[in-house]
Structure formats: structure tokens, C-alpha cells
Amino acid sequence: MKVFHTIKEVVQWRTQEIDRRGKTIGFVPTMGCLHNGHATLIRQSVQENDFTAVSIFVNPSQFAPDEDLDQYPRTLPEDTKLLESLNVDILFAPNAKEMYPQGIPLDVSSQRGPFVNVLGVSEMLEGKTRPNFFRGVTTVVTKLFNIIMPDNSYFGQKDIQQFIVLNVMVNELFINTKLTMVPIVRADSGLALSSRNKYLSPKYLDISANIYKGLSDAQKSIEYSRVEAQQSIDRETLLKKIETVWEPYIITGDFRIDYISIADFNTLNELDEVNPTDKIVISCAVNVFDRNTNNTVRLIDNIVM
């Protein structure tokens, strides 16, 4: 595996060092601190493409000034070893100056240079709590697509809204890469794997598994209404199913709900009722307060039906 830190090195590899005639490049963009969820994306890319590129870049433009940019885990030596074992062809690990030549202060009003906005789907859910988050994601991913020019790009379902936003961006800016969404990888408890899980103590990793259990109870109710009753089910019934599982942890202050969404998969418009033929996504963001470490960790999860 080759490790590149500059755009010039990647472009040289893409244009001079490999023969792309009739061959494909797969791409997995990451912020590092790799886990088995990332490995699943990478394995699929290696299986489906002639070459696989992975990027590791903790992107400042998707962090607000009060968020955890400085604390975000950085494990490049360990990540590099994992990528080598997965038969990745290149790792692109640039610094912020390489990706943002004019600099990238966290204060949006001080930022200079081109940025990409996807209006509509980026302003819901995560976009309400983190108003500049998707602007940062779409900007950096556009830059990475232009540098690597992948035929296929792979993203995890855990960041479902990110996938939907990027899919709109790719389709409507006519970017020549196919996006593939890979299912969530979970721990045995059901907790979705995330780099931010490292912030939680073992006890609170177990408690956090109840996030998925709540969503699963709503899923079971929808499945029953579709298969057995063959009828729609209303939103309030589904929210009650979720909140019943979470209630003990809300009362103790272990969970603070940011949002629960029951929405159309393509538009992310909230649904008052779920009909048997609807393609939907049940999603949430929950702030978990770990009393053992005094960390508050924001976790997201979702189920697509």
C-alpha cells in the first residue's frame, strides 16, 4: 500500500502509475480511528474494484467551534496497519492546509474559498442541530472525489442522512461516481459501531445498546402492521414504542434525546403515519452522559425499512 499526503502524489498515481483502461477505482472516505464498520466498506470496495483508495482526514469544516475537533481520536499508525491488511492500494492522508489552501477556521464567517451546499435534505435532522455540518461534509467529499476520481464510493448506513445528502449532490452536480450504502455493522449488543464509542466506558456501552433496542421495537410494530394487519400505523404509536425502552435512561439523565425521526427515505420528510408500501428510515440522535468518565457522547442510529 502506498501512503500519500499530497494531492499531487494522488493525481500522479491515478494518471501515471496505474493503467485505468477498463479498470475501476473504489473509494472509502474516512476520518480515521478505523473499526470493523470501516473495514466492511473497504472489503466491499476491494472485492468490487481493481483498485481501492481510502482517505483519512479529520475535516475541520464539519465541526462547530464548540465541538470535539481537538479531541476526535486520531490513530493513523494503527489505521495504516489495518488498511495494509485489507489490501488497500493507496491511503491518502492530507493535512488541513492541503485540503483548504486558504485555511479553515471553525468560525464559518471567517472561512474563505469554495464550499458546497445541498439545500433541503441537509437542513433537517442532523442539520438542525449542526447547521454547518453537511456543508463541511459535501465540500470535503467533493474535493476528494475530484482528487481521486473514483468509479465507486462506499458509505456506511449509520450516517444515513449523509448518504442521502451526498447522493443528491452526486446526482445533481453530475459527479461521475456511483455511491453504495453498506449496512450498519453492530456490536453483539446491537450498538452501532462508531469511532465515538471510544469515549464511553464499558457500562455505558451496554446502556447505549438500548438506543437500537428502542428503534427495533418500532421496527417490529411496523412489520406487524404490514404483514399481519396489512394497514398503516401512526407516528405516535411508534414514538411511544421507542420512548418506553429509553424512559429509564431519560429519567436518570443517562440519555438526552436530540431527535427521533420517522421519515420518507428519499426526502426525509416526517411521516404522520407509515403505510405498508412506504420506504422509510427510523433514525435518532441521543446524547449519552457517561457518569464514569463525565463524557457526553452524541450517538446516532437508524433502521431502514
List the helices and strands and how they pair.
Elements lengths: L1 E3 L2 H11 L7 E6 L5 H13 L2 E6 L19 H10 L4 E3 L3 H4 L26 H4 L3 H16 L3 E5 L3 H13 L5 E5 L19 H28 L3 E2 H18 L2 E10 L8 E2 L5 E11 L4 E10 L1
Parallel strand pairs: 1-4, 2-3, 2-5, 3-4, 5-6
Antiparallel strand pairs: 7-9, 8-10, 10-11
Write a structural description:
The chain has helices spanning 7-17, 36-48, 76-85, 96-99, 126-129, 133-148, 160-172, 202-229, 235-252; strands spanning 2-4, 25-30, 51-56, 90-92, 152-156, 178-182, 233-234, 255-264, 273-274, 280-290, 295-304. It has 305 residues and is an alpha/beta fold. A hairpin with a 4-residue loop joins strand 10 and strand 11.
- Mean pLDDT across all residues, rounded? 95
How many beta-strand segments? 11
| Biggest sheet features | 6 strands, parallel
| Separation of the first and last Cα atoms | 38 Å
Proportion of beta-strand residues: 15-25%
String of helices and strands: EHEHEHEHHHEHEHEHEEEE
**Which shape, going by the Cα principal axes?**
globular
Strand order of the largest sheet: 1-4-3-2-5-6
- The helix tally amounts to 9
CA-atom Rg in angstroms: 20 Å
Work out the helicity level.
25-40%
Structural class based on helices, strands and sheet pairing: alpha/beta
pLDDT below 50 for ≥5 consecutive residues: which ranges?
none
